[in-house]
Amino acid sequence: MYPLRRNRRLRTNESIRTLVRENIITPSDFLVPLFVVEGKGVKEEIPSMPNYFRLSLDHLENEVKELWKMGLGAVLLFVKVPDHLKDNKGTEALNPDGLMQRAIKTIKNACPDMLVMTDVALDPYSSYGHDGIVEDGQIINDETAEVLAEMSISHALAGADFVAPSDMMDGRILTIREALEEEGLVHTGIMSYSAKYASAFYGPFRDALDSAPGFGDKKTYQMDPANRFEAIKETEMDIDEGADIVMIKPGLCYLDIVREIKNAVDVPVAVYQVSGEYAMVKAAAEKGWLDHDAVMMEQLLAIKRAGANIIASYFAKDAVKLMG
């Protein structure tokens, strides 16, 4: 006797597969990371991130206009700070005419409706390459949180829609939220890197910004990859402190965490598909070992299927071009 239900009927051809598909990737899923550098006419390919670039402000303007035309409406900004402007307290981060602040204004002038999120952490500005102030070889938590709050205010005043603290200091979301409220910046959102793991997948990113730690590692503040329940605790605390969006970073190796958090919280969940994940696909495709586009889309679908509302990905343009 044949079964009354044959599941393969819903896989017969692309038309039916498309009709019943549970998850799809669209341009509105993406948050596009952008790397900004000083200078003019600068578009430097990052060696460990093929086809991804550091952009001076003039190229940044062109890039955001192109993104907008493609239907990509949100960017996440990172800056590469010259060494002579780095110190232990991230002083340059508070400069109202600093590179980040000018980058925000450049984007808002070029494309006013583009959603601008900004990285909030000290490592690009730190002479030590750490996400916080260093004292006697230790990363100091509370003093760092105060600087991050000042940094967030500076970004908001420049026009940022959301600040994105990526530092993993305890209590920094509350410190930032209270500081923004006190300044009357009540509409500035916070996307917190709530479950950011001490991952080996960040190498190409650190090359892009010259922000590798000058000593030790980041395991005293970023999370242990072995831990699962800690991620839920960290995320719930950030929401209680005022986070509007929470992020899990990295992506593919932590999809179990994405699903755990998605089931536990009632705010949008972002996932960062990080530089190492991007670089691996690019390298394998260059060798002819993988089908670049097929693997890229499968990974993006896996991230969305796990529960991501937002995907920060260096593949955003590649994926949207493929959709077109």
Give an account of the 3D structure.
This protein is of the alpha/beta class. It is built from 11 helices and 12 strands. The protein has an 8-stranded parallel beta barrel, surrounded by 8 helices. A two-stranded antiparallel sheet has the order 6-7. Strand 8 (162-165), helix 5 and strand 9 (189-196) form a beta-alpha-beta unit. The protein is globular, with a radius of gyration of 20 Å. The termini are far apart.
What topology does this entry show?
Elements: H1 14-19, E1 30-36, E2 43-46, E3 49-55, H2 57-69, E4 74-79, H3 99-110, E5 115-120, E6 133-135, E7 138-140, H4 141-158, E8 162-165, H5 172-182, E9 189-196, H6 203-209, H7 229-241, E10 245-249, H8 255-264, E11 269-273, H9 275-286, H10 292-306, E12 310-313, H11 316-323
Helix pairs in contact: 2-3, 4-5, 5-7, 7-8
Helix content: 25-40%
Rounded mean pLDDT score: 95
Approximate strand percentage: 15-25%
The outline comes out as: globular
Q: Give the N-to-C terminal Cα separation.
A: 45 Å
* Low-pLDDT segments: none
N-to-C order of helices and strands: HEEEHEHEEEHEHEHHEHEHHEH
Q: Return Rg in Å.
A: 20 Å
Report the total helices: 11
The biggest beta sheet is recorded as:
8 strands, parallel, barrel
Q: Report strand order across the widest sheet.
A: 1-4-5-8-9-10-11-12
**Strand element count:** 12
Structural class: alpha/beta
